[in-house]
């Protein structure tokens, strides 16, 4: 592994292909084991998973054009006497390294597609709850320009507000409605695999109300995908509340800058999905629709979404 790290660093230095630096910070009251899945066609980072003790950090360098996703595993047991596992977001490798495997949902995901390094080439990034939620995570850009370069993520502990039917049995994670029910109207598949036919459910509204900048369902693009050029990124687990950036992350992004935002969406990959190994090129987790009665019950208006989400969080 040491030789691989040295080779990786020399390769980047010789080719001049340094892209973004990713710094992982653990502010949880427990150890987190970040997992990393690299998209096909881009070189892997120096590790695919590592231990990150409480109040510690670690940085990794990525090349230009890199794409992939990060997540935090919790409740892991790796004692060296046999295959290990994690209670949430396990990648199933049995090791600290994920070795090309993705996160088993529910998992909070941070997804990136870095620019090629050419003039004006943008990075695209998001935090997705499409595969459910297991712990708070925020992404912050630094040193970048030419783009929104905004903080995004979810600082709210959604496990406290998770509906009973979405809770993982021990309460350490919250499933997506698609994973919990498997119904087309929740999964944006089949007849519901377009932005026009896939609408957010009342469950997605709860996620969106708590975390306005994170993906709550597959086509939640306009308020959930962000761009920046030439930035480094900090991925923080369990950010302390209150913080200077909590209000920013909890604020709903403006969608009035329509031309720039739509242009960004047209050239960005669609983020959102599939923790357990379908590849990290952010492809939306497609879901479908059932009967018109089912759609009437679950595809409510935006106003109804907000009302239901507000009422649920208030009474919980």
UniProtKB/TrEMBL annotation:
Q: Using the UniProt annotation, give all residue ranges assigned to the region (Disordered).
A: 251-295
Which N-terminal residues, if any, form the signal peptide?
A: 1-19
* One Pfam assignment: Thaumatin
Q: Does the keyword Signal apply?
A: yes
Q: For bias kind Polar residues, which ranges apply? A: 251-262
| Superkingdom of the source species | Eukaryota
Family annotation (Gene3D superfamilies)? Thaumatin (2.60.110.10)
InterPro entries recorded = Osmotin/thaumatin-like_sf (IPR037176), Thaumatin (IPR001938), Thaumatin_CS (IPR017949)
- Keyword Signal in annotation: yes
**What keywords appear on the UniProt entry?**
Disulfide bond, Signal
Residue stretches of biased makeup (Low complexity):
263-273
Q: Coiled coil located at which positions?
A: none
User: Which cysteine residues pair off into disulfide bonds?
Assistant: 28-238, 76-86, 91-98, 149-228, 154-211, 162-174, 178-187, 188-198
Protein name according to UniProt: Thaumatin-like protein 1
Which organism's genome codes for this protein?
Heracleum sosnowskyi
């Amino acid at each position: 592994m040491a030789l691989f790290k040295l080779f990786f660093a020399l390769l980047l230095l010789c080719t001049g292909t340094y892209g973004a630096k990713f710094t992982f910070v653990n502010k949880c009251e427990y150890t987190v084991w970040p997992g990393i899945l690299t998209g096909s066609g881009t070189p892997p980072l120096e590790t695919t998973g590592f231990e990150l003790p409480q109040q510690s950090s670690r940085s990794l360098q990525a090349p230009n054009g890199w794409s992939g996703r990060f997540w935090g595993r919790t409740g892991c047991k790796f004692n060296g006497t046999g295959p290990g596992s994690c209670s949430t977001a396990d990648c199933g490798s049995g090791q600290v390294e994920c070795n090309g495997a993705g996160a088993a949902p529910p998992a909070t995901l941070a997804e990136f597609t870095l620019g090629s390094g050419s003039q004006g080439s943008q990075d695209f990034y998001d935090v997705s709850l499409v595969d459910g939620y297991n712990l708070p995570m925020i992404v912050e850009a630094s040193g970048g320009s030419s783009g929104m370069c905004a903080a995004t993520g979810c600082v709210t502990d959604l496990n406290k507000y998770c509906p009973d039917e979405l809770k993982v049995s021990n309460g350490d994670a919250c499933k997506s409605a698609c994973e919990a029910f498997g119904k087309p109207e929740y999964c944006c598949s089949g007849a519901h695999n377009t932005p026009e036919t896939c609408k957010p459910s009342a469950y997605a509204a709860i996620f969106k109300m708590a975390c306005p900048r994170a993906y709550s369902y597959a086509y939640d693009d306009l308020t959930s995908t962000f761009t920046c050029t030439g930035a480094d990124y900090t991925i923080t687990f369990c950010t302390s509340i209150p913080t200077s950036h909590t209000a920013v992350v909890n604020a709903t992004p403006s969608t009035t800058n329509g031309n720039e935002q739509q242009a960004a969406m047209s050239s960005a990959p669609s983020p959102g999905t599939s923790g357990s190994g379908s590849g990290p090129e952010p492809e939306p987790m497609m879901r479908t629709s059932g009967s018109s009665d089912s759609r009437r019950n679950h595809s409510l208006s935006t106003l109804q979404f907000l009302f239901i989400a507000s009422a649920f969080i208030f009474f919980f």
